[in-house]
């Protein structure tokens, strides 16, 4: 069952729609039922899907995507695609976030065929309820894929700019933009896998605790003066 936002929702993260009602519409292509569109966020789609549309037939696996563009490194903190997968895992449904690491002429067939095989292999095993896999595909033809790597997230290098625009009424507007982001190609990272034309699969954790920092923060707090 397909449940998707009815418009572009890039970089919307894990936003939920809590202050207005959501509208769900059935979508037909060439007269055939295709799925549902929702005037909300990717995470909204997961919640509406699990709690209403598919409440009597809970899915065994959620696939979020295919996203037109990469979700590498720090991108995951902005990504609606990844956030939808995280929402699924939070509700105990194993989830995949699928993205194409390109910016034009997207090779959807490559990502779709490979994702289908990944899903089939996962279904043969006992799925972990809170599993989240962030999967990025190089933007190339299927036969050019050089392999699959289990990776860690690398470091994204953003080149953000703020442009100031003045409208005829004299109001100042700010436009966020900049050059396309880059990434550090380091060993075992998602950036390295994509650079080598390999599929990157990064397991994500719902626990964002920095355990290495706990002792340091404890020592720091002991030194604080609250008087």
TrEMBL record:
Keywords: Cytoplasm, Hydrolase, Metal-binding, Nucleotide-binding. The keyword Signal does not apply. Residues 1-159 form the Survival protein SurE-like phosphatase/nucleotidase domain. Transmembrane segments: none annotated. GO terms for molecular function: 3'-nucleotidase activity; 5'-nucleotidase activity; exopolyphosphatase activity; metal ion binding; nucleotide binding. NCBIfam families: PRK00346.1-4, surE. Belongs to the SurE nucleotidase family. PANTHER family: 5'-NUCLEOTIDASE SURE, 5'_3'-NUCLEOTIDASE SURE. This is Survival protein SurE-like phosphatase/nucleotidase domain-containing protein.
